[in-house]
Design goal:
Length: 458
């Protein structure tokens, strides 16, 4: 009998949030008669709250694992929820202009905070009782198998794993780190994989040998035929950590894997999204753009805007537009990556960088079609040539338009080194593999978290 892995912690937390928000709304309507009657538009309040919880990272691994991390983000989420509720009442007065709606708006803020806190308390108690653990059977016990387990423990969406390694000398040598790991166990005989699997009853089998020549395909097929899911190393890891492992990338997997096909319909839908989002934002943030422009002019001599060559789809070079945040002579000796506490950055420029306001003029690039709203961040031609010569597959980033925000930006802090570029490339390739408008909408929502909690800004 195969195991049922059950829902993930993030899915359970989402259902808990729905249940707690529904309970709070029901209690408010019963306990405060003045709230009645309310129209169907009132349902938008909890929907907006759920979107904010997702956007602010309260379903991410760090917030799921650390209860303190979740508590730190809840006040911001509650404040953002209040702002969203106010915006809805202002934008749609015919729906939310009634006194009852105003009362509902006032009650939604503490109710939202209480519901979100209650859901996370329940999740915390479930975690302490051992829920959400998954059992993996890893075929192989070499370097690749160890890399798999290490990344799962540090990056995976699943919170906890019990791992058993199945070793066969034909699959390579045992990595000494696995032998020294007190939490790992090794089955030294892979001759009867089906019997071993049935005895251990794992949630999933992951194939991760260093040597494939000794791999028993018949044994793996037998396990699959009786109901045990079987995954290849790269495909399983990609889904769990949200990026492609470049360190042990198998080019044959890359060749035959699904994805990496950018369809014309996807391009058209993304272009419509780009035009809609950039136009709307340019109207909304016009006062902020004017204030930033005045600040740049008053605090430092020189132009307000800074134009720089960057590379987008197909290697096409365009001129990106930003608010100037550095001295006018910042690159008199050539192109240089920004560094921590870079002395070339002006005081007002540092404020613009930390708040990401310096990026806002790039909405004009999006509107013109130089960039997309979502995509790999554009690099300078000098850096592209250097990185392409040192990082395999780097040019594949240019299969799609560069973006104002992207999957790498919402998952990896700012970096200005070869290792940082390699890590961001792993996220960019994952984005291109899963290219589509729905993925873009997820990234746009998660960008809100990066704005509130910027990391590594230089």
């Amino acid at each position: 009998m195969t195991r049922n892995a059950g829902p993930s912690a993030a899915h359970v937390l989402f259902l808990l949030d729905v249940a707690f928000l529904a309970a709070v709304c029901f209690a408010a309507l019963r306990l405060v008669p003045a709230l009645q009657p309310v129209g169907p538009g009132a349902a938008l309040f909890p929907v907006a709250d759920l979107c904010l919880l997702y956007a602010l990272g309260l379903y991410r691994r760090d917030a799921l694992v650390g209860f303190g991390e979740a508590l730190g983000r809840l006040p911001v989420a509650a404040g953002a929820g209040a702002l969203a509720a106010w915006a809805m009442t202002a934008a749609f007065p015919t729906i939310f202009g009634t006194p009852e709606a105003h009362l509902l708006f006032a009650a939604s803020v503490p109710g939202f905070a209480a519901a979100a806190l209650g859901a996370r308390l329940v999740l915390h108690l479930l975690r302490r009782r051992g829920f959400f653990r998954r059992r993996l059977l890893v075929v192989g016990a070499g370097r690749r198998a160890w890399d798999l387990v290490w990344m799962l423990r540090h990056e995976a969406r699943t919170l906890a794993f019990d791992v058993v390694f199945v070793h066969d000398p034909r699959l390579g040598e045992i990595d000494p780190r696995i032998t020294a790991d007190a939490t790992s166990s090794i089955v030294p005989d892979a001759s009867d994989l089906l019997t071993t699997t049935q005895a251990l009853n794992p949630d999933r089998i992951v194939v991760a040998p260093d040597e494939r020549r000794g791999l028993s395909m018949e044994g793996l097929l037998a396990c699959k035929m009786v109901g045990f899911p079987v995954s290849e190393y790269a495909a399983f890891l990609e889904k769990e950590i949200g990026r492609i492992d470049l360190k042990r990338l198998d080019l044959s997997w890359l060749l035959y894997a699904d994805g990496f096909i950018v369809r014309t319909t996807d391009r058209l839908l993304k272009r419509m999204l780009d035009i809609g989002v950039s136009t709307t934002l340019l109207v909304w943030i016009a006062p902020l753009v004017v204030a930033a422009a005045v600040g740049v002019k008053l605090t430092d001599r020189g132009p307000i805007l800074y134009r720089q060559e960057r590379v987008s789809r197909g290697g096409r070079v365009f001129r990106i537009i930003k608010f100037r945040t550095m001295r006018t002579d910042a690159e008199r000796n050539g192109a240089v990556w920004a560094a921590t506490d870079d002395p070339r950055i002006t005081k007002f420029g540092l404020l613009l960088r930390r708040s990401r306001i310096d990026e806002l003029p790039q909405l004009l690039n999006v509107l013109r079609g130089d960039m997309a709203f979502v995509g790999p961040r554009p690099e300078r031609p000098e850096f592209v040539r250097e990185l392409a010569s040192r990082l395999p597959l780097y040019e594949e980033r240019h299969l799609v338009r560069a973006g104002l925000t992207g999957w790498a930006q919402v998952n990896y802090p700012y970096g200005a080194s070869l290792n940082d570029a390699r890590s961001k490339l792993s996220y960019d390739l994952f984005y291109i593999k899963n290219y589509g408008v729905l993925f873009d909408l997820r990234i746009i929502l998660q960008t809100l978290r990066v704005v509130f909690w910027p990391s590594g800004v230089r």
